[in-house]
Every structure is written in C-alpha cells, then in structure tokens.
Amino acid sequence: MDLVKQNALIEHVRERGGRETQVAVTLEQFFDGNDCEWCIAPNRSEDLLLEDVRRALVELRRHPDVHDVRVELDQLEFETYPDDEWPYASGAAVITTLMPDEVDALLLEAEVDPSGGPASSVDWLVDAPPIPEGHHYVGVWWS
Is the model's pTM score more than 0.90? Predict the structure, then answer.
C-alpha cells in the first residue's frame, strides 16, 4: 500500500464532500498504489484479483464507444484509514454510447452485476465525468 497515494486520495475525496456523498475518481487515483483486495468488487471469486478488475476497467475505458470510466467511491467510512485499507467503491461510472448489456459483456472477466442505465445525467455524483452529446451514463456495480 502506497500510504502517500492513499492519503492524497482520501484528502481529495474529503475536500469534495466524500463524507456525505459519493465522489467519482479516476482509475489512476483509485488503483495507483492500492493493494487492498476488498476495496472494490468484494464478493468476486478468489482467483479474480484487484489487478484484474483494474485491467478490465482500463480496457473498457480504451473502447472506442466509451468516453470515460470513473470509480464511484462510497461515502468515506473512517476518519483515519488503517494502513491496509483503501476507500471502498461499489461501482464505476461509464460514459458511453453502449447499452448496459454491452458494457456487461465487455466486463465479463470482472464479474460485475447487471449494469444500470442508461441515464442522461449523473448530477448526484460529485466529479462525475461530463456526458458528451450522444453519450449516456451506465452504472457498473458489484454486490
């Protein structure tokens, strides 16, 4: 665990209101320095590692029909985070022209639950990526 990156992420999220609301962060902010296996997709099979989830989301972001992918952090749960814990995320915001079932098909290896959407706005999510014309939000979740 990179504690400098952990603290930088936590401070950024706190400044954005992360104690009371969900904040979207980039894949790099969430995954760089993070080795907390249970911070996202906690009920995945044991052979699916955090690195596999990261790789799947990065590959999805590279898809030509995807504008952006951000991690949707849950509200911060600790005042002081333990050295081995990272802020928890239950999902990801995908800004795309793809429909939810198409996004799910691209994320089969990441063991996602059925995605939600499409939605034309994400005004409930602080720092949500902009939605260009012709695109929409698809919510990717793990239970």
Answer: yes
